[in-house]
Automatic annotation (TrEMBL):
Catalysis: reaction(s): ATP + protein L-histidine = ADP + protein N-phospho-L-histidine
Domain annotation PAS: ranges: 288-333
EC number(s) recorded for this UniProt protein: 2.7.13.3
UniProt-listed Pfam families: HATPase_c, HisKA, PAS_9
Domain PAC as annotated: residue spans: 364-416
Superkingdom, taxonomy of origin: Bacteria
NCBIfam families xrefs: sensory_box
Presence of keyword Disulfide bond: no
Record protein name field: histidine kinase
């Protein structure tokens, strides 16, 4: 008889159902975990590629930035604006701001360092021929180059960037920067990248040259990604490995199911919850990053737009819409011609857009003119670059533009202002120069300065030697050019806030020559005036000489008669002879005074008494006074005062003033003809006053009296009063005229009283000669 089962068949199925359900649940759970793990790996792989591409672009842009700094040094060196001292200063500044740079040097075409900062920093590079050869090739062909990685003592693996300094068809050298790969990663790999991946450089053989972090990371299999790194190239690649966090995967879960389905389910739920929490955190971080990037993009003042490879608009930012005046919905999906292209510039816009689609973009970008929706035109500067997606595929182009309308307008206004300033400066007859106060370097000069001092170059580091030793605000003579200049100098601030000298030199050669001619003419006129005056005093001379000559003749005749008669004693004879000698000296003094008065000679100062001056002048005026019946009134209160002056010149001044006063009263009634000569001391000044009772001088003609060739006389030359004022001013005095209350005019000569004055020096000889 067949044995029956303990449980009926339906019950066995009921008991088996939980096991089957548990097995099915476990299978479904394991399958679900495997599926989730696969999706997570795919997501991590996509994030890895995106982060590696971002990191590669960031590192490459930094190397491009270093290359741009080298290009700036090369351009300044070619223009001559970079000296050795400024090179060391700028190199230290660049290295302080970029810790990955180990050294900066200027090398020749053989790779030898001309300037190096720090010193001997380029010597390790000489030990690597493979690194020297790209530098030599860069210097020969005049293009930027980079070297393969090489070992730099104390810094590990490094590369060198070389930018040649090209002038015309020749290369003046190359600026080389040694960049540490380890320092590059340490400086420009952000913490959130280093927390998730190990970023490193590997060579063509897969050997790690530098990494961050430096500890070894086991091979992550598919969770690692390599990308070519150029510059510098030479097989160098950027590799990223994902840190393994140890995904909990129970390969023997079926053996544990029997130990407790509840624990397995709780564990599965806990794992799923943790996974969901990590996923949510990652999504939130990604959302925050996307929002931050969107906020950064919306905060830009530069317009950004992206197109596909056919030119269809894919994306525009807020600044771009604000510039052109269109909404994003109106621009997205559009194809050329775009509505913001003006009709007059459409051809240029099409050419530029075609160049962008071909991948052509100059370093300085494109200069275009766009229009807003309102029709207003504005100028922009446009830059473009390839648009790469997360898979590294070239999907289109992204461009940025900046509104340069105001900048262009300001530049044009500045240029116009500069042109006007240069035109005004070059239109001046005076030579204008701006020189550095410390070293005398010529910073600015106008055309008159360059023509006067024969400078061929309009600017440049020249030394303003013609004005270095000239005294400011004085006349000086240039013995090289044979010219006289009136020089004015003042200290001011230059555009860079440095202290400079502003020198203005006016060519006064013709003026000095005219002054010399005027002086010579004045001397001739002065001599003529003396001769004319001499003719007028001829009768006075005859009268003055007749008296001493008659007295000499009478005394001589009386002496002869007395001697013949024998009735004179020796004492009486001696007295008569003394009177004869006195009259002879009187006649000689008259002749000598007339000769000095009319003699042409240079000014000569000496001590002279005021009374002697007046006696000489009044003796010469005796004849005109008698001829015109003029009464002479003398109020001489300062005859004992002495002046240190030219006696003959002052006699000429007093003679001219008295003679003019006499002639002014010729037509007046005889009883009113009165000439007053007055002297008195006023502190440290001496006043000589000559007053007449003539018709007076109208107020409107007072200032004209002292002008050359102005006269109120029918036969006058108009030089007397001008000569008088010149003589008085030469003696540091003043000559003024005023009306007398009771009719007539008063001429007042005020002279300073000094013990002795220095002789005129060579510096003011021209002033003396003008007299």
């Amino acid at each position: 008889m067949k044995r029956q089962s303990h449980l009926p068949r339906p019950d066995r199925w009921l008991w088996a159902m939980p096991n089957l359900a548990l097995i099915c649940f476990l299978a479904v759970g394991v399958a679900l975990l495997l599926f989730i793990r696969h999706n997570e790996r795919e997501r991590q792989h996509d994030e890895l590629i995106e982060d590696v591409l971002w990191q590669e672009q960031a590192l490459r842009s930094e190397l491009v930035g270093r290359q741009n700094q080298l290009e700036t040094l090369a351009h300044d060196y070619v223009r001559g604006d970079l000296s050795e001292g400024s090179f060391y200063g700028r190199a230290s500044t660049i290295m302080a701001a970029n810790s990955e740079i180990l050294a900066i040097a200027l090398t020749n075409e053989y790779g030898d360092a001309i300037w190096s900062y720090p010193a001997q920093a380029m010597e390790p590079l000489q030990l690597h021929p493979a690194a020297i050869e790209p530098l030599q090739r860069s210097a020969r062909i005049g293009l930027a180059a980079s070297t393969p990685p090489f070992d730099y003592p104390g810094a590990g693996q490094a590369i060198a960037l070389a930018v040649p300094a090209v002038q015309g068809n020749s290369t003046l050298g190359s600026f080389v920067a040694v960049v540490s790969l380890k320092g590059l990663l340490r400086t420009y790999v952000p913490w959130w990248i280093a927390k998730r991946y190990q970023i490193g450089f590997v060579d063509i053989e897969g050997q790690t040259l530098a990494a961050r972090p430096e500890q070894a990371v086991p091979d992550a299999g598919p969770l690692s990604y390599d990308i070519a790194f150029d510059p510098p190239g030479y097989g160098l690649r950027l590799r990223a490995k994902v840190f393994q966090t140890g995904w909990p995967f129970w390969q023997h879960a079926l053996y544990w199911v029997l130990a407790g389905l509840s624990a397995l389910m709780l564990w599965s739920l806990w794992v799923l919850k943790r996974h969901m929490r990590e996923r949510l955190s990652a999504e939130r971080a990604m959302l925050r990053e996307m929002n931050m990037r969107q906020a950064l993009e919306d905060s830009l003042v530069s317009g950004v737009f992206a197109t596909d490879r056919e030119g269809r608009t894919l994306h525009v930012n807020r600044a771009f819409c604000r510039m052109v005046g269109f909404d994003a919905e109106q621009l997205l999906g559009g194809i050329p011609p775009f509505p913001y292209w003006p009709a007059e510039a459409r051809s240029q816009c099409e050419q530029v857009f075609a160049a962008i689609l071909r991948g052509e973009c100059p370093v300085n970008g494109f200069s275009l003119r766009y229009q807003r929706q309102s029709g207003e035109r504005f100028d922009v500067r446009l830059y473009s670059s390839p648009l790469i997606d997360g898979d590294g595929r070239h999907t289109g182009w992204v461009a940025s533009m900046t509104d340069v309308t105001e900048l262009k307008r300001e530049r044009e206004a500045l240029k116009a202002s500069h042109e006007r300033f240069v035109a005004v400066l070059n239109g001046l007859d005076a030579a204008v120069a701006v020189t550095d106060r410390r070293n005398g370097e010529l910073l600015l000069s106008n055309r008159a300065f360059r023509e006067a001092f024969r400078l061929n170059r309009p600017d440049g580091p020249l030394c303003a030697l013609p004005l270095r030793h000239a005294e400011p605000d004085d006349e000086w003579y240039d013995p090289i050019l044979g010219r006289w200049y009136q020089h004015h100098r003042r200290e001011t601030l230059w555009v860079d806030q440095s202290n400079v000298w502003l020198d203005i030199a006016t060519d006064v050669t013709e003026r000095k020559q005219a002054a010399d001619r005027e002086r010579q003419q004045t001397e001739r006129l002065q001599q003529t005036a003396r001769l004319i005056a001499m003719g007028e005093i001829a009768s006075s001379l005859a009268h003055e000489l007749n008296q001493p000559l008659a007295a000499i003749s009478s005394y001589s005749t009386a002496c002869r008669n007395l001697v013949s008669s024998g009735q004179i004693s020796p004492t009486e004879l001696d007295g008569a002879l003394e009177k004869i000698a006195e009259q002879s000296r009187r006649a000689g003094a008259i002749i000598r005074g007339i000769r000095e008065f009319v003699q042409k000679r240079e000014p000569k100062r000496s001590a002279c008494a005021v009374g002697d001056l007046l006696d000489t002048v009044l003796s010469l005026l005796a004849a005109p006074l008698n001829r015109y019946y003029v009464r002479l009134v003398e109020l001489r209160q300062a005859d004992d005062t002495e002046l240190y002056a030219d006696k003959v010149m002052l006699e000429q001044v007093l003679f001219n003033l008295c003679k003019n006063g006499i002639e002014a009263m010729v037509d007046s009634p005889q009883e009113s003809r009165e000439l007053t000569v007055e002297t008195h001391r006023r502190g440290e000044w001496l006043d000589l006053i000559v007053a007449d009772r003539g018709p007076g001088i109208p107020a409107e003609e007072v200032e004209k009296l002292f002008r050359p060739f102005y006269t109120t006389k029918a036969e006058g030359m108009g030089m007397g009063l001008n000569i008088c004022r010149t003589i008085v001013e030469h003696h540091q005095g003043r000559l003024v005229v005023e009306a007398r209350p009771d009719g007539g005019s008063r001429f007042i000569v005020s002279l300073p009283i000094t013990e002795r004055r220095p002789e005129p020096s060579a510096a003011n000889a021209s002033l003396v000669h003008r007299l």
